[in-house]
C-alpha cells in the first residue's frame, strides 16, 4: 500500500518473517535482533554471531525466543524477540 507521496506504508509481501520456520542461518543480514522482557520492559540487542556460535545456525527464531532470559530481573517467561529491518540503500 502506498501513500499519495509514494511512501511505503506496509512492508512488501516477501518480507514477512515466519518465526517457526525461519532459522538464524536463513534470516537476512539486514535484520537486527533485540530482546525485550515483558515484566520489567528491559530491552537489549542480541548479537547474531554470538548466538550462532553458542547454539548453531539451525536454531529457529521461535526456539530462541523461548530461551530468552532477562538480565535485569531474571524473568524467563513471555519474553519477546524483536526484529528490526535496517535501511538498505
Q: In words, what does this structure look like?
A:
The protein has 89 residues and is an alpha+beta fold. The protein has one domain. 17% of the residues lie in helices and 18% in strands. It is built from 2 helices and 3 strands. Strands 2-1-3 form a 3-stranded antiparallel β-sheet. 4% of the residues are buried.
For the structure shown, list the relevant keywords.
single chain, 2 helices, alpha+beta, 89 residues, 3-stranded antiparallel sheet
Estimate the mean pLDDT confidence.
Answer: 82
Domains (count): 1
- Element-by-element helix/strand order: EEHHE
Strand line-up across the major sheet: 2-1-3
**Tally of DSSP helical segments:** 2
Q: Proportion of β residues? A: 15-25%
Largest sheet: 3 strands, antiparallel
Number of strand segments: 3
Helix content: 10-25%
Low-confidence stretches: none
Radius of gyration: 15 Å
The shape, in one word, is globular
Strand-pairing-aware structural class: alpha+beta
**Euclidean distance between termini CA atoms:** 20 Å
What is the fold's blueprint, element by element?
Layout: E1 31-36, E2 43-46, H1 48-55, H2 61-67, E3 80-85
Antiparallel strand pairs: 1-2, 1-3
Task: Offer a concise description of the structure.
The protein has 89 residues and is an alpha+beta fold. It has helices at 48-55, 61-67; strands spanning 31-36, 43-46, 80-85.
Amino acid at each position: 500500500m502506498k501513500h499519495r507521496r509514494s511512501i511505503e506504508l506496509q512492508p512488501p509481501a516477501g518480507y514477512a518473517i515466519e518465526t517457526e520456520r525461519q532459522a538464524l542461518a536463513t534470516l537476512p543480514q539486514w535484520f537486527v535482533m533485540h530482546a525485550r522482557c515483558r515484566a520489567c520492559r528491559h530491552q537489549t540487542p542480541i548479537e547474531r554471531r554470538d548466538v550462532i556460535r553458542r547454539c548453531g545456525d539451525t536454531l529457529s527464531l521461535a526456539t530462541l525466543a523461548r530461551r530468552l532470559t532477562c538480565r535485569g530481573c531474571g524473568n524467563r517467561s513471555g519474553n519477546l524477540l524483536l526484529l528490526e529491518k535496517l535501511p538498505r540503500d
